[in-house]
Write a structure and sequence with these properties.
The structure holds two protein chains of two kinds.
Chain A: H1 3-22, H2 50-64, H3 68-90, H4 96-122, H5 126-155, H6 157-160
Helix pairs in contact in A: 1-2, 2-3, 3-4, 4-5
Chain B: H1 15-18, H2 21-34, H3 41-58, H4 62-69, H5 73-86, E1 92-96, E2 99-102, H6 103-129, H7 132-142, H8 153-183, H9 193-224, H10 243-262
Antiparallel strand pairs in B: 1-2
The chains are: A mainly alpha, B mainly alpha.
Chain lengths: 161, 264
């Protein structure tokens, strides 16, 4: 792995944690409203951002989530699986907007993993939990798409790493 | 807003503080799953006693543990109520339409709340007695076998260390930019939703620009100092596995057959 890729991803992970901590300290339990989840859209521009996002999720769950143990397994798992699906799909989907829409759908759907986590750990009803968790994720990802798109115009994410 | 503590580490000299991060990581991860073996009063009793022993050994003030539990109290209450009112087993205490309160439901609710409490306390103890850097070192070491499968273990640990180093810096930066934009009339915490969404953009653009600039500087500094990956690299802090670490793992391993034997 190139040094530049390493460092940019390290800093991106720090940014994920910082934004999680400062902007929305209410993002845990079954209504998830993490503004930083919109960073998931970065893989649409360049698949190398996956490391930073996954590490960001890992550290945020390790340091900030009260359900550390479960979130580390399921939360990180959800991010890894969803990001990989999107990365694989980008080969076939052309156009940034289409990819972002696809990414939003994948992440919203994969909240079933988080619902499974809460169902296993707390015996919460699976479908209702999935619905509430998915709504939060969908809102953040849908709002995040145009925001990340505009930031990309300034920064050109594809070329940074 | 700066009172959000990143990493809950509390310095101390207890036996838990002095343990190798690898043994603590392994034990906590194992316990998260082992707790599920408990299914009656005796097995839950064993686990609660173990948790209490761990709290005593950590010599962390209860105030800190309570702080770790506070954000999850609501979740515990919701879980308790949902489980108590929607589980039908045992004798009925109260029955009205959708709501049934039974002895079995109450027991189930109590068990699940205790399970959650135990897991949260165990993981809180890990982060209270281990610095994030130690956790990273421990993880890098534990994941070493995956190097053979060409998983970039060292690179991951380095990215984690960089992230941990820059979290406080970037948090400060985020707050600074938020204050600067608030001074210009941007509302982050009040006003209609659309306005608050629009407020995110003037926050994230400068934040990303400054973060990527820091990455640029760091890349240059590391290259100038001749960073070449993990080949021939030495460490400032060496991990030391001791008798107490082996003992901790032994307790965890013995716990499995004990719970299997005692469970109903």
């Amino acid at each position: 792995m190139k040094l530049r890729v390493l460092i940019v991803n390290g800093i991106l992970a720090a940014l994920y944690v910082a934004v999680t901590a400062v902007i929305a300290p209410f993002g845990f339990t079954n209504i998830q409203f993490r503004v930083s989840e919109m960073f998931n859209h970065l893989v649409v521009f360049n698949k190398k951002y996956i490391y930073g996002i996954v590490i960001g999720v890992f550290i945020a769950n390790l340091l900030l989530s009260p359900m550390v143990g479960y979130d580390l397994v399921f939360g990180v798992g959800q991010s890894v699986i969803s990001l990989l699906i999107t990365i694989l799909a980008t080969k076939f989907i052309k156009g940034i907007w289409l990819r972002m829409i696809f990414n939003t759908i994948v992440f919203t759907f994969m909240m079933c993993l988080i619902a499974a986590e809460l169902h296993l750990a707390l015996n919460l009803p699976f479908l209702i939990t999935w619905l509430t968790a998915a709504i939060g994720e969908f809102v953040v990802m849908a709002i995040g798409a145009p925001i990340i798109y505009m930031i990309n115009k300034r920064l050109n994410f594809e070329k940074v790493v | 807003m700066m009172n959000i503590i990143i990493g809950q580490y509390v310095p101390g000299k207890s036996i838990l503080h002095h343990m190798d991060p690898r043994s603590k990581l392994l034990a906590v991860f194992a316990l998260i799953f082992i707790v599920f073996l408990a299914n009656n009063w005796v097995t839950y009793g064993v686990i609660v006693i173990l948790t209490l022993v761990a709290i005593v050994l950590s010599r962390v003030r209860l105030r800190f543990i309570y702080k770790g539990l506070k954000p999850i109290l609501l979740v515990i209450i919701i879980t308790f109520v949902l489980n108590a009112f929607f589980t039908k087993s045992g004798e009925a205490i109260f029955d009205y339409g959708w709501f049934h309160l039974t002895t079995g439901g109450l027991q189930q609710a109590a068990f699940i709340s205790v399970r959650l409490l135990v897991i949260v306390i165990m993981t809180t103890l890990l982060t209270l007695t281990t610095t994030p850097i130690d956790i990273t070192d421990g993880l890098e070491n534990l994941l070493r076998p995956f190097k053979k499968l060409r998983f970039p273990v060292h690179e991951f640990a380095l990215m984690m260390s960089i992230a941990l180093r820059f979290i406080p810096t970037l948090m400060e930066e985020t707050e600074k930019i938020m204050k600067a934009q608030t001074a210009r009339g941007v509302e982050f915490s009040s006003g209609p939703l659309t306005q608050r969404i629009k407020a995110i953009l003037p926050l994230l653009v400068p934040l990303f620009i400054s973060a990527f600039k820091r990455a640029e500087d760091l890349a240059m500094a590391m290259e100038a100092r001749g960073y070449r990956g993990d080949i021939g690299r030495t460490k400032l802090r060496l991990l030391k596995w001791g008798l107490k670490d082996s003992l901790l793992l032994l307790v965890v391993i013995v716990l499995i057959p004990v719970l299997v034997l005692l469970r109903g």
